[in-house]
Amino acid sequence: MMSRLAAAASRPAEISFEVDGRILSAPQGEPLATALAAAGLLQLRHSPRNGAPRGAFCFMGVCQECAIHVDGVLRQACMTPVADGMVVELRGVP
Amino acid sequence: MSGECDLIVIGAGPAGANAALVARQHGLRVVLIDEQPDAGGQVWRAPWPGLARDANAPEARDGDALRARLGASAVDCRFGRRVWSVTSGYRVDALGPDGNEAVCAPLLIAATGAHERVVPFPGWTLPGVIGLAAATVLLKSHLVLPGERVVVAGCGPLLAAVAAGIVKAGGEVVAIVDLAGPAEWLKAFPAMASRPRLLARGMGWALKLASKRVPVHFRYGIAAAEGEGQLERVRLVPVDEHGAPCAEPTLTLTSDALCIGHGLVPGAEITRLFRARHLYQPLRGGWVPELDGFGRTSVPGLLAIGDGAGLKGAAPAEIGGRIAGLAAAHDAGRLARDAFEQAAAPLLKQRENLAAFADASAGMMALRPAQVAAISPETIICRCEDVPRAEIDAAFAAGARDVNQLKHFTRCGMGPCQGRMCGDVAAQLLAAQVGSREAVGYWTGRPPLRPVGFEALIGSFSYDDIPIPKPAPL
Amino acid sequence: MSHIHDLGVIGGGVHGATVALFAARGGMDVALFERGPLCREASGVNAGTLTMQMTRVALIPYALEAHAMWASAGDWLGHDVGVVVCDGLSLAFTPAEAELLTFRAGKRREAGAPIEIVSGARAKEIEPGLSGQALIAGHCKVDGFANAYLTGLAFRAALIEAGVSLHENCPVAGVEREDGAFAIRTSQGVKRVRRIVLAGGVWIEPMLAWLGISLPIKTLINQLSVSERIAPVMRTVVGIANGLLSLKQYPHGTVVIGGGWQAVGDRERGGVELLPERLIGNMRLACHAIPALRQARMARAWAGLEAETRDALPAVGPLPGIADAYVCGSVHSGYTSGPYIARLLAEHILDREPAMPLFPIDRLLAPEGAGTTA
Lengths: 94, 474, 374
Ligand SMILES: Cc1cc2nc3c(=O)[nH]c(=O)nc-3n(C[C@H](O)[C@H](O)[C@H](O)COP(=O)(O)OP(=O)(O)OC[C@H]3O[C@@H](n4cnc5c(N)ncnc54)[C@H](O)[C@@H]3O)c2cc1C
Ligand SMILES: Cc1cc2nc3c(=O)[nH]c(=O)nc-3n(C[C@H](O)[C@H](O)[C@H](O)COP(=O)(O)OP(=O)(O)OC[C@H]3O[C@@H](n4cnc5c(N)ncnc54)[C@H](O)[C@@H]3O)c2cc1C
Ligand code: FES
Prior knowledge:
The complex is a heterotrimer of chains A (94), B (474) and C (374).
Chain A: E1 3-4, E2 15-19, E3 22-26, H1 32-38, E4 45-46, E5 53-54, E6 67-70, E7 73-76, E8 87-89
Parallel strand pairs in A: 2-8
Antiparallel strand pairs in A: 2-3, 4-5, 6-7, 6-8
Chain B: E1 7-10, H1 14-25, E2 30-34, H2 58-72, E3 76-79, E4 82-87, E5 91-96, E6 99-104, E7 107-110, E8 114-116, E9 129-131, H3 132-142, E10 144-145, E11 149-154, H4 158-168, E12 172-178, H5 182-192, H6 196-211, E13 216-218, E14 220-226, E15 233-238, E16 251-254, E17 257-261, E18 264-266, H7 269-273, E19 278-281, E20 286-289, E21 302-304, H8 314-331, H9 337-365, H10 369-373, E22 380-382, E23 387-388, H11 389-397, H12 403-410, H13 423-434, H14 437-440, E24 452-453, H15 454-458
Parallel strand pairs in B: 1-2, 1-7, 2-3, 7-21, 9-17, 11-12, 11-17, 12-13
Antiparallel strand pairs in B: 4-5, 5-6, 8-18, 14-15, 15-16, 19-20, 22-23
Helix pairs in contact in B: 1-2, 1-8, 3-4, 4-6, 5-9, 8-9, 11-13
Chain C: E1 4-10, H1 14-25, E2 30-33, H2 42-45, H3 60-71, H4 73-76, E3 84-92, H5 95-110, E4 115-119, H6 120-126, E5 136-145, H7 151-161, E6 165-167, E7 172-178, E8 181-186, E9 189-198, H8 204-210, E10 218-227, E11 237-240, E12 246-249, E13 255-258, E14 264-266, E15 270-273, H9 276-289, E16 297-308, E17 315-318, E18 325-329, H10 334-349, H11 362-365
Parallel strand pairs in C: 1-2, 1-9, 2-6, 3-11, 9-18
Antiparallel strand pairs in C: 3-5, 4-5, 7-8, 8-9, 10-13, 10-16, 11-12, 12-13, 14-15, 17-18
The structure holds flavin-adenine dinucleotide (FAD) (2 copies) and FE2/S2 (inorganic) cluster.
Residues 10-16, 33-36, 41-43, 45-49, 171-172, 199-201, 203, 222, 224, 246, 258, 304-306, 329, 331, 333-336, 338 of chain C line the site of one flavin-adenine dinucleotide (FAD).
């Protein structure tokens, strides 16, 4: 059976990565946006003018709502596989 | 990937992959590029490398077969590469694991597929609200469920597919909220019945959903998505036969995931970049390149196929790909006219047989102007730039008459999604005041085709090697 | 007979729009004809830099006045074009560039631009975002930028308020002299005007040909790119000694990268193609100056058309031998200087003495090589 987002327990935790100082784990190869959502982190950034919460929307590389800093560089979380030791920051794009 | 070849195909979905295979069979040297880690496109998307999979789903079977054929062929597959620039010649620049790579060929096939249309409503920007097509990606490729209690909403065949996919995977669908009514489905039914296998699958979905007693709300839309920081509630509202709300919101559902979509929009960015002639065709999803029967655009050497050239669905995309592969072989001088026509004839016939089905499902996913007209002034249209509808109306009042001027006046479409999420709806809002979609036009195509990181693009370099042009006059 | 306007302006870029605005405010009945929407060619797609360090020496006195106009756009234009006044730095990374910079800054200083040469270390104090690789820099306090895509919105409102009769999406096909007036053939019929200003940007060459004047205008196809919004990485306008970089971050966070790298195109088709190698080259230069840019992504690139005369000085003034006809354009860094120079022409048309000389085209009409100067 597939796991639900926000029910991370059922997924194998093969690698670990860091999000704003928190250590999370995820299966090897899982897209970062999915790994974050599974850890309950749906909110990835704030919108530029209104400061409203935003999260992954299209999961196919189009909407750019999942653009976050991965090892210091802006990347689309839905197109980026999680990797061991990855450092993720949700400091956002102003 | 540097160097020369006879044909470059961008996009390895059913359309592009089949075009590449056929052209290769006729002796062309073919480079096939896609930004996904593997071929399959949206519909036959492969699970991410390393994730456990269910190989029995029909899409997985079709996709695996395609990937096997590509693997056994001499098509030069370049996956995990994002095409950001296409210039005449044709030269294609793609950003991959080793930085920027360029490849050149006299023929180019654009097979870049479609992206989702979501007609905005209050709260559609809340985390937890995702696209309907996005849900298919989660189910097929990321192998997870969108949430604990999922509302599936919007219109078209993807509604049932997503809901059934969630149920099958053991998830809970709180409700299906369909803009259409049973009458519209019945109207589409005879055409749908022209493809028994797909109809059977649709029936299968229906039975699966019925057995789980998933409530279906026909002729309902989403009035609002609400929650603190992320989705908690979804409010439903009855809609009329045009998709516009026709009463006060009636129902509130507790939910942590709303999957919503109102059809697809062709990703015609490459043909726009080359200023090929385009036509506005609502049934095909919007602005599409004008094509001859074989996929050739008005620009010599440039072909466009699949959903990116007009929505028809996976099977016609596959056949259209094969036809364009033949056309490319013919244009490259590898296939004589007679042989070309002979090989294309049965494919053209096959595609014609699929037309009724394609039109019926595309019809259910076409933009509903009345739904757009009913968007409230404060609802965000452009997610990237937080532009509400009121500012689009104000731009019209200030003199904006085409979408590119609208963009200058409001920043609508200037963000990193490059107008993909808002473009169709913003153009429709302006068109309703100006008079027609033709009059307001479409965003000018420009590179990069998708945003690309400076770091990856510029790589390491020494200052002296930058080809700085000669100084401007003093 | 149809209504005759005092003045007809053809071309609605920053030059045409400014002439029309000040002529109307001076009491004339003005009509403006623009082929597309207002300010959507060079004047709406340019980099918006308002700098002395890229301005031609002969134009510095004009550019200083123009900078003051932009800085107070709220007063005379009345609508926001997002002007930011800030420091400007022109960098030299190599000894050869340092020499070029010192020479060029010296010439511009002589012409009145308050440019000071500072050390690389001082430059980094002024702009903490710099990489620190600059040997020296030209520092000018009169610098800044506007948000060019707002130009049309702002001028449109101002022109309507000033009573200009505005014809957008109205291409002009030709102009004829007729009974002491001009007949302008437009897509909306023939309009009659007593005086005429040709302000067609790179298209002043075909416009002048309507009146039998042959003035070759070179078309530059300038490339620009922009990042998505990012956290602040810089606070000044940054360029390099030879003028081939212009870089600044807008208050909303995007960084615009320019400097006049050339794209593919022409007057007939516009800027049709951006060459990947040049985009990458321009970007490398930008990241060499401001390393934090490396974190960002490019959201879009485009190209626009800029006009250049044989001597790269403006074509602004009366047309020789044709009474009541004027040309206005081909001003280098014309977004910066345009409003001031076009206002001077409006003064001239209103029979007032302009505060500085115009740039009549007689000098350019003499046979090539005849040695005339401005
Ligand atoms: C998210 C989504 C889910 C869908 N789910 C279903 C479904 O379950 N069932 C169904 O019948 N239909 C579905 N559809 C419709 C179906 O995708 C299409 O009918 C079919 O896939 C069209 O094939 P295609 O080859 O034209 O495009 P696609 O399959 O979309 O393939 C296009 C490919 O081009 C690549 N690409 C695009 N731009 C670039 C670039 N700049 N650089 C490199 N690569 C690029 C993409 O990565 C993609 O792999 C879905 C559509 C979408 C958008
Ligand atoms: C990419 C780029 C970057 C630049 N960056 C800077 C910068 O940072 N700082 C700076 O100071 N300058 C810059 N410039 C220069 C500056 O933009 C131009 O000098 C200035 O905008 C020119 O204004 P204009 O009114 O002469 O021409 P345009 O703005 O081109 O206006 C001419 C108008 O005439 C219209 N027209 C043409 N033919 C007809 C016809 N037949 N009928 C009716 N209308 C017609 C056109 O549609 C056009 O709107 C840049 C230029 C470009 C292209
Ligand atoms: S979720 Fe849309 S780009 Fe990643």
